[in-house]
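Self-study notes.
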Amino acid sequence: MGAHDDIRIGGITPFTTVDWPGHLAAVAWLAGCPWRCPYCHNHGLWTEAAAQYDLADLLAFLQGRRGLLDGVVFSGGEPLAQPGLPHAIAQVRALGFEVALHTAGAYPERLAQILPDLSWVGFDVKAPWERYDAITRVPQSADPARASLRQILDAGLPMEARTTWHPSLLAPEDLTAIAQQLAELGVPAWRVQAYRPDGTTGLLPKETVYPSDVPEAAQSAIADYAFRRA
C-alpha cells in the first residue's frame, strides 16, 4: 500500500443509527481539517497527530461486520483532506458496504473523484456565504464549499445540509439567509443543530438555542427542515 493509499483515522464508532439517517452504519473519524470552526465538537481531530488507526485496521474491523451493517460513514475532521480517501472508499465498497460522507466541502476536486461511489452526503453549511470566513477562520473558504455543494446537487445524490448554531456566531437573520441561499440552489433537506460544548475547545459561552428561536422564514424556506437538539 502506497503512502497515498492509506488514511489516518482518529477513531472508529462501531455502530450508529444517527450519523446516516435510516441506516445502520459504522463511522471512521478521519484526522485532519483545514478549518478551525470554534463550535467544532471534534476539535481533537484537527491535526493528523490524532490518528490511532489506519486503513488496514478499518478493513479488519469491517470484515467482522459484513451482513450486520448497511454501510460506513467517513467523517472527521474533514475526510476530504486525506488523499487516500478514494482508495479507502473503494476498499470498503469491495467488502459490500455502502459509503456515506460527512464533509464541509473544503476540497471540491477530491469530492468530484468519489461522488460516483457515495450513497449519501451530510454537508456542513457554516454560515451565509458572505460570512463563511468568520466561522472557518480561513479566507475565501466559501468558494470551495459552494462549489462542492453544487457538485453534490448536480449529481442528484441523496443528501442533507446541516448548520450548527451558536448564538454568538450566527444571528437569527443569518439562519434565514442560509436557508434562502440553500433553497436557491435546490437543497432538498436542511437541519439546524443546536451547539453542544462536548468535545469543543470550550472557548464559546455555554449558550444554547431552541426550535422556536429559528425564524419562521428560515424554517419554511426548505420543505424538509428539522431542528436537532444537542
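Second protein, same conventions, sequence then structure:
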Amino acid sequence: MDDQKSAETQGATADTAGNGTPLVKMVGIEKWFGKVCALRNINFHVGHGEVVGLVGDNGAGKSTLIKVLSGFHLADKGDIYFEGNMIHYSSPKDAKRLGIETVYQEQALAPHVSISRNVFMGREPTKALGFMNRKMMDEESMGAITRLGLRIKDPEAPVEALSGGQRQGVAIARVLYFKAKLVILDEPTIALSVKESQQVLDFTQQLRAQGISVIFITHNIFHVFQVATRFFILSHGEALTDVKKEDTNIDHLIELIVSGRKEKA
C-alpha cells in the first residue's frame, strides 16, 4: 500500500510539472481504410506521469489510434501535439525520437538471443573497431531491469528461458533505458498467468513512479482498473467516455463497453 501511495504521489508531482499542458494531445483524429471509418473525431490526451486505460472490445479502434500516435499510420484528419508542440510524422522513428515507445503484445523480442542483446536490439553500442560492447550492454541492461524491480541475475540468459511476465519486463526495461517519456503497452497481460499479470501491473506502477506516462491498452477492465488513473473507452472508432478513476467503477465501464452507449460530456 505504501508503494502504491508513493507511486501516486510521484505521478501527481510529474503531472504538475507539466504546467497544465498534456504530454500528448490528439485533436479531431480521423482514420479511414477505404470506405471504413476506423476513427471518427477522436480527442484524446495523456498527462505527465499519468496511466490512461485505453479500453474497448475487439475492433473498437484502440490499436488504430495507437498506431496513429506512434507513427505507423498517418491520420486522415486531425492534429497531434507532444509537449505542447504540433508534430508531423513520416515514420515510427519520428515518434521514438520524441520519446514515444510501444511494447506490443508479441513483445518484439528475439527468444534465442540474450537478455542484454534484446534490451539493446537495433541500438547496440560498439567499441572503436566496431565490435559490440557486450560488457556495457550487460551492465546497463541489468541496471534498467533492476530499476524496474525485476529480479534477473544473468544478462546472458536467453529470453526464451524467462516467464511471460519476465519477458514483458525485459521489453519494458528496454524502453525505460532509452528514456521513453510515454510508454504504450498493447495488451501487456494477454495470455499471462495471474502471477505474471500482477508482475506487469507492478511494472506499470514503477513506470509511473518514475514520472513516465503510460497508455495501457486492454479489453480486461479488471487488470487496468488496478493501475490506471483515467479511462478512455472506444467503440467502433468513436469515443464513449473519458472518465477519471474516482468518477467510475468496474461495473460502469463494463456496461459502457457492452452497450456501446456514449456518455454525455
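Instructor comment on the second fold: The longest strand covers residues 36-46.
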